[in-house]
Specification:
Shape: elongated
Distance between the termini: 24 Å
Number of helices: 5
Order of helices and strands: HEHHEEHH
Helix content: 55-70%
Number of strands: 3
Length: 122
């Protein structure tokens, strides 16, 4: 696993750690079951505070990218199972809300498309 933190980037270090691990897990560079370094170990190697890495790990666990197995360590989770469930739930909630607001299907899908483009171009 290779991570680089760019202090001049303007992106908070925990977000850089989260994004890089997430991308490497998604791309397969970090395979399912790969054991991640401890919070302290990764913090030391990156020159960051342990709390910064812990915050990134918590976010990754919340996203379903990694899973903590108690004293056994932290591992890359099975490809997207929790993330896919959360995404489906969010999509369902959005669709129901759009319908309650009286928004047509095409307009609801267009709004999602616009939002996704805006977020992924950041």
């Amino acid at each position: 696993m290779t991570l680089q933190i760019h202090i001049d980037d303007g992106t908070p270090p925990y977000e850089q750690v989260r994004a890089q691990i997430s991308e490497q897990a998604r791309s397969g560079a970090l395979p399912v079951g790969y054991r991640l370094p401890t919070v302290r170990g990764l913090a030391e190697s990156l020159g960051l505070a342990a709390n910064t890495v812990a915050k990134a790990y918590r976010a990754l666990e919340g996203d379903g990218v990694i899973e903590t197995r108690g004293r056994n360590g932290t591992f890359v989770a099975a490809a997207g199972s929790a993330a896919e469930r959360e995404l489906a739930s969010a999509a369902q909630g959005y669709a129901e809300r759009a319908r309650r607001l009286g928004v047509g299907e095409e307009d609801a899908v267009a709004a999602v498309r616009d939002a996704v483009r805006a977020v992924y171009r950041e």
